[in-house]
Amino acid sequence: MTTRHDGGPGVRIDVTGLTKRFGSVRAVEDLSFTVEPGVVTGFAGPNGAGKTTAMRMILGLVAPTSGTATIGGKRYAELRRPSQTVGAVLDASAFHPDHTARDHLRIYRTMGRHPESRVDELLDRMGLAHAADRRTRTFSTGMRQRLSLATALLGDPRVLLLDEPSNGLDPEGIAWLRRFLRGLADEGRTVLVSSHVLSEMQQVVDDIVMISKGRLVAAGPLREMERDLPATVLVRSPDAAELRAALLSAGGGRTRVETVSDDGLRVYGMRDADIADLAGSKGLRVYGLTAEEAGLERLFFRLTGDGDPAPRTALHAHGPPPAAVPPQATTPEGNRR
Ligand SMILES: Nc1ncnc2c1ncn2[C@@H]1O[C@H](COP(=O)(O)OP(=O)(O)OP(=O)(O)O)[C@@H](O)[C@H]1O
């Protein structure tokens, strides 16, 4: 077993040929990937791609139609002390509204037979000590996410599976979550975190498993995938048609130009300064130039062949990103309520 981190033995997740059909719905189809310890692995894909179903199969909550998922070489049902091996958050809202944060953790602590000291330790670590005796009905989304994570960590598990943990978090909450996930990986843990917001995931993950319509699209280190993407520049110009012709003519076959809106072009294979110079020399107006980073969204759309996503950096041509979806009704220990 390998780990890219020095902090103790790591536990790998192996998913092999995993398939789940619900009647005629192919939720997960012949999915194979590994999740390594010591890094944060993003499980990315649009709504309905099959992320939750795959995670539920890894956790033994849904029986696969075929294929296997193992944690440290064992299926979930074969683990001797599951809550000391795997912590999971599939739903950050599954709390009894009248229980306090401390009540909640004490119940799960008792069920998992974890040391009593874990409750206060985790309330502290999650920044919830001040709210320990408040009823969870008064908790904000961010506080609920933190309490879910605390529950998942009660058994000090080496493996964490988190389904859309950034859902509903404000920018400060997302920044906290990023630091938290990085800390878990730095402790040598195996961290699989799903999200349908690819741009958000890009800032925290080391490895990525990308799925679409239940199938694997790509898997591997994010940096390597990004390297394969050509740099692009978004250009906003009221003379877009003329500029497009000039770019193609000057680029001599090395430059590709995509029309993204009435006055928006995406240019492949030419630097922003060269585009500005060319436009100036032809007397064409340019109102905006944005060098785009090789983003996960572009990678995803390129790999799935579904066309490029709406440009968000400069042109805002196609409206806001999709809304977050509510998580599923499952407790951190995986039992439906
Ligand atoms: N119990 C079920 N019965 C029938 N169909 C299901 C069931 N659970 C999931 N599905 C279907 O399987 C597909 C994958 O759903 P899943 O929730 O795993 O996707 P997801 O990637 O987690 O999406 P989201 O980001 O929206 O949560 C969807 O078409 C969904 O409707």
TrEMBL record:
Domain ABC transporter: 13-238
InterPro entries: AAA+_ATPase (IPR003593), ABC_transporter-like_ATP-bd (IPR003439), P-loop_NTPase (IPR027417)
Disordered as annotated region, ranges: 310-337
UniProt keyword annotation of Nucleotide-binding present: yes
Biased composition regions of type Low complexity, renumbered to the chain: 326-337
Keyword annotations of the record: ATP-binding, Nucleotide-binding, Transport
GO MF annotation terms: ATP binding
Pfam families attached to this UniProt entry: ABC_tran
Protein family per UniProt: Belongs to the ABC transporter superfamily.
Protein name as it appears in the record: ABC transporter ATP-binding protein
